[in-house]
Amino acid sequence: MLLTRRGVLGLGLGAVAAAVLASCTPAPQWVTPTGAAVSGTEKNRGGTGRVTTVDLTAAPTTLDLAGTSAATWAFGGIPAPVIRLTAGDTLKATVRNQLDADTSVHWHGLALRNDMDGVPPVTQAPIAPGGQFAYEFVTPHPGTYWFHPHVGPQLDHGLYGALIIDDPDEKVTWDDECVPRQVVGRVSSISKLGVVGSAVPA
Q: What is the mean pLDDT of the chain?
């Protein structure tokens, strides 16, 4: 096959057009926790000044299912240990990734600043294997929430837990709480069925 002068010019113009289009695509710009926009918003948000610090390590584990061992993943247990604090408190959660895949933590149902929302690659870069990420935010609203990765089927592997934000003005007392296994387990089952939403029916 002979290459004509017209063919060479066409290839050259195609290469130039591809280079121009590639240069027009901006590189993603992540909102950083120390950026001016975030700092100003967080200052206006206020808070109690109290800080709860937690460490979450996503790692392989083995479950005993009635005498049968099953390899899976967890944040130290299934569900993860409950994280509990009061509305207005600051949560500092360091997430360490000991998996062989990227991960993150999404704080399901909380109205948070974007860089702490844990949805890669939309609101943060994923936490690479061997890496870690420090989430830090004021907990805005009382309620029972949950946390889980937003990467592939990791939630279904067992990476989830309850986040309880107490209302400082609540006057109700109770005899018992049934949150970690019943509610979180039901939320996980509902998510596997494809039901979308934060509310869990009674």
A: 79
Tokens read off for 135: 């989430």
> Which residues lie below 8 Å from residue 139, measured CB to CB, with a gap of 6+?
85, 86, 87, 88, 89, 90, 91, 110, 165
The two three-digit tokens of residue 37, written as one number: 């926009």
3-state secondary structure of 86: strand
Contact 79, 160 (CB under 8 A): yes
How far is 153 from 155, CA to CA, in rounded Å? 6
Specify which residues 162 forms β-bridges with: 146
Domains with residue ranges and CATH for the chain: 49-168+177-190 (2.60.40.420)
Question: 0.70 exceeded by the pTM?
Answer: no
SS3 content of the chain, % helix, strand, coil (to 5): 25, 30, 45
Percent of the chain with pLDDT over 70: 71
Q: pLDDT category, 177, cuts 50, 70, 90?
A: low
Q: List residues bridging with 68 in a β-sheet.
A: 65
Measured between alpha carbons, how far is 123 from 106 in angstroms, rounded to an integer? 10
Which tokens go with 165? 């934000």
Query: Could you tell me which of 191, 108, 183 has the C-alpha nearest to residue 146?
Result: 108
Give the pLDDT score at 32: 65
**Residue 29's pLDDT band (cuts 50, 70, 90):** low
